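Collaboration report, partner site 2.

Our partner group contributed sequences for two proteins of shared interest, and the home lab folded both. The records are reproduced in the order in which they were received, starting with the first partner submission.
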Amino acid sequence: MVRFGLGPRFGARTRWIALALAAAFSPVLVAGSAFAQNNQDTIGNGSTAGVAVDAEGVLRRTTVADPTGALSRQRVQEALSRLDRNVARPSKLRKISLTRLERELTKRIAAGEEADDVMRNLAGLTRVQYVFCYPESGDIVIAGPAEAWGEAPSGRMLGIASGRPVVQLDDLIVALRAFPPGNRKISPFIYCSIDPTPEGLSRMHQFLQEIGRQFVGPPKPGFEQFVVEQLRDKLGMQVITVGGVPASTHFAQVMVEADYRMKLIGIGLEQAPVRLRSYVDRANPHQVARNALQRWYFVPNYECVRVSDDSLAMELVGEGVKLVGEAEVVGNNGQRSAAKRGNPASQAFVNAFTKVYPQLAERSPVYAQLRNCIDLAVAAAYIRDQDFYGLAEWHPGVFENEADYPVETLNPPKQVASAVNSMWKGAMLVTPIGGGVQMRPTEAISPTNLMEDKDHVVAKARTEIDLSKLAPDQWWWD
């Protein structure tokens, strides 16, 4: 949050203007509405909100309209008619052998074919709950709930019954490539960030000083919109940075979209689908250090892994995601440094956002997708660090090779125009900007964060799975 006064003369004679600003980005896929009735990822009148990335890497906002729900119903029928009855059946615990899946995918590629729909959508898996290793059969298995799926009008692949996004093969491969077999000392920092440039912040700072000196008395009609447009112009384009995974992957763009959508909720430009007061509704400018920049970003809840005594089984528990905040100070030249005091309104907002995250994930698929990506990254880190590759004698092949199975197929995000929302708020300009997603998956599997497998529940879940009856080409089962 940037807190700037507009000048003593202006402020003494009238209310001062308060503005909320944030910059963000969303991937090519429009933020989607689920097939389930409880999903409200919309902007009203049956339109789903979202943006696209053009060939130059610039954000463009867009919507998809489905006012009567007819398109969604059509997609449901198409999906049900296309899917095999067995894979379309809901399952509390669907199992997928990564080693067998990779072997069958290798055969298809060798035959000049692509991954089929069941492979691309991991047999309808909507959450990774377990990871198991079976050295005796050479299998590494992930397991979780699954259901029939279809493509929503937004372009997302969603479960037909629940509206939850389906875990994507591309995202799984991105996670596995981030933690390849071998060097356990490598601990990639996976992140995205959307930030104003120092030049943009400096121009904004100068503009606010100038406007405070120039204007005296009550603001004239159109003044507020003038300030909004000028702030947007002075800040200019903001920079999108992705690290730890390729920016041109679906995994990366889920991170950036989730950050984008969270900021829009925070500044009141998007209505949350659950009860959640925005940051600007909570903000009290007098409680914030002058020239303060507020950053919000997602991190994993690192206490999310339960492991069996022999380490051959692990369970991912909890929601796995939380929102945190930090304050910085912006200097005249646009450079940022740590602020000496925090912001109670910002802290209240991130705490509330974290608390309702499970409900948000149910109603707005991008947050469930972010949770799935974090789960996949933690699972991939565990598979590598426990050397499941060596135990199963598995050499991933096409899962490791971009030339054989490309996942870097989307326009990488590079920059986005600043988005500004205006409102009256006391006597200061409040501007929350900055943020992102930050994850260090290996922290979740460090000894200090691991949860005890009381009553050997995780170990029992592994031993109850029987792989002996699987057909040679079978890679998923219930």
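Second partner submission, folded after the first:
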Amino acid sequence: MLTEEKVIDQINVLLNGQIAVRETTIIKRDGEEVSRTYHRHVVMPGNSLDAEDPRVRAVAEVVHTPEVIAAFRASIADA
């Protein structure tokens, strides 16, 4: 029997307030791991958190202050 498990195993806050998230997908056959793949994405300050894991939302609620969002938006406007 094949099973699939998805786990958020890394949440990292970058210097400019971005949150880097790594999701691991583990495939098991009869309880034995046969495959492991990774998907990464970045949550920008000020972006919607609706689709994020509750733990990512909790980090963003602390990190994404109005000041961090304003500074991030200013930094990308200057680029």
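Feedback sent to the partner group on the second submission included the following. The chain has a mean pLDDT of 96. The longest helix spans residues 66-78.
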